[in-house]
Amino acid sequence: MIAYFPHPYPDEILYSLLARFRRHTCERSYKRACRALFAKKDVTASVYFQSHIRQLHQRIKHLFPYSEQDLVHNHTFLPFFTAYTTPEVAQRAYESSLNNRGGALNVLLGTAANSVELPGVLKFCPACLDSDFARYGETYWRRLHQLPGVLGCHEHILPLHESLVAVTQRNRHAFIAATRRNCRVGKDFRLSVYENDPNVFDDIARAYQRIVADEIRTEPHEKRTARYFALLKKKGFIKGRDSVSQEKLFDSFSSYYPSELLEILFSTVDISNDSCWLKAISRKHRKSFSPVRHFLFSQFLNALPDARKKKLPKICVYPKYVPPHQQRKTNREMWLMLQDANSGFSKTQLRKLNPKLYTWLYRHDKQWLSENSPALLQSQGSPGHVNWERRDTEMLKAVRQAVIDIHMEIPLRRVTISRIGKRLGCLANLEHKLDYYPRTKAFLKERLESVENFQVRRIFHIARTEYCAGRRSKDWEIVRLAGLKTPVKPDLEKAVSLALKTYSDGFICREPLLNI
């Protein structure tokens, strides 16, 4: 239990609340502040994915008139990142934030692999800054200001400025409070973009405000896909039964949003790119998308007018036209004569000789045409025989050179079949047809690196680099520079000792390919 905890301000993030606690209690040590708040000193300070919230609530609940759920939903970014996920993912993310699994949130919510980058520094509004000091005697970090794509304060219609506080600090336990010293008004390259069209960014900020207020409910991917498909169909972007007209969609989307806005939101579109996010989000959802892109897509569809209803074709009340008997007889004779004059021709070749005659028979005498046309020619297969031995020789030469090139790269790269295949442009052959290349397969069996083999090669490389630089490193230094997890496996410990002994004796050699 602690004796004091500050009262949260409107839309204040939990990071700011914990920073103000450290500032109010005049605690200069970040670790001692963590121990007072969480009863442990190794809790990582995180702006977007703070963990150990349940442990924090247990220590402040006698001073804090809010529940764990209130703290998460009103003062963290979890409502924003889970707005467009499934209910199962949202519940797992909520439990992770309460417990000590905050590092898993970045992977669980897809932000680690997403191309929409989060802001690198904390932002503030100068008008909010002056208002806070006049009302509270201090300022704080607002949640809405830190979201990607929010360049202006929707309350004062002013551009946001970047503070001097980075989202990721060198000291991972540091909670930095907002002050006049670190919130200085400066010129930012995005301010001109905001000033050109503040209404667009104001709409984004207000939409995000609805998202963090839990007005966007989670739902399964299938349901969201069906809802997007219904909107696409309503707006006229569906051709045929269930195919999306990507050209039309890309043209309309690019016309609706300015290119500068899409670039700032890391959401530019390229129709020639098969992995473009706009193509993926308009199809069946097989992966998660950033809330930024969900907002852009849904805002675009809802703002477009409905496609005009096409007039239905008039129904013909007359009976089906039957050609005269004499014309049918004449055309049949012409088709048979065409076949006699071009014996050995296929049906397709005959059609090219007299397309008009073929079209008439196809439309008015289809059954007779089918019965009195050359039979479909059976495929005889490839006329040539594949020389797999020659291919194997060529593949082996290319693969051997690729392995040499990978070994020469700095920083070091692990020799894998995927890296070799992508480098040579023959990944499918190496993954699915390797049995056709026996010599290449035998070579790869010897030269492909397991994780342990690659770690050993990295150990010897670092030991040699340290020796050439005139440094005599210890075992633990080699382990740290090689990025090995502790405790180190016995085989890797032997490799470290061997590497140090090799270079301490003044003998420089190439890193061996060991089979551990």
In a few lines, what is going on in this structure?
The chain has helices at 14-24, 30-38, 53-60, 68-75, 78-81, 87-98, 102-108, 126-135, 191-196, 198-212, 221-234, 246-256, 259-264, 277-281, 291-303, 325-341, 347-353, 355-364, 366-371, 388-408, 417-424, 427-432, 438-447, 451-468, 475-481, 490-504; strands at 121-124, 152-153, 158-159, 161-166, 238-239, 243-244.
Write the layout of secondary structure elements.
Blueprint: H1 14-24, H2 30-38, H3 53-60, H4 68-75, H5 78-81, H6 87-98, H7 102-108, E1 121-124, H8 126-135, E2 152-153, E3 158-159, E4 161-166, H9 191-196, H10 198-212, H11 221-234, E5 238-239, E6 243-244, H12 246-256, H13 259-264, H14 277-281, H15 291-303, H16 325-341, H17 347-353, H18 355-364, H19 366-371, H20 388-408, H21 417-424, H22 427-432, H23 438-447, H24 451-468, H25 475-481, H26 490-504
Antiparallel strand pairs: 1-4, 2-3, 5-6
Helix pairs in contact: 6-7, 16-18, 17-18, 20-21, 20-23, 24-26
Q: Report strand order across the widest sheet.
A: 1-4
Give the low-pLDDT segments.
Answer: 309-321, 507-516
Percent range for β-strand residues? under 5%
- The total of beta strands comes to 6
**Helical stretch count?**
26
Mean pLDDT: 81
Question: Would you give an account of this structure?
Answer:
- This protein has 516 residues and is mainly alpha-helical.
- 51% of the residues lie in helices and 3% in strands.
- It is built from 26 helices and 6 strands.
- It has helices spanning 14-24, 30-38, 53-60, 68-75, 78-81, 87-98, 102-108, 126-135, 191-196, 198-212, 221-234, 246-256, 259-264, 277-281, 291-303, 325-341, 347-353, 355-364, 366-371, 388-408, 417-424, 427-432, 438-447, 451-468, 475-481, 490-504, and strands at 121-124, 152-153, 158-159, 161-166, 238-239, 243-244.
- It has a two-stranded antiparallel sheet with strand order 1-4. A two-stranded antiparallel sheet has the order 2-3. It has a two-stranded antiparallel sheet with strand order 5-6.
- A hairpin with a 3-residue loop joins strand 5 and strand 6.
- Helix 17 packs across helix 18 (355-364) and helix 24 (451-468) packs parallel to helix 26 (490-504).
- The longest helix is centred in the last third of the chain and has 21 residues, at 388-408.
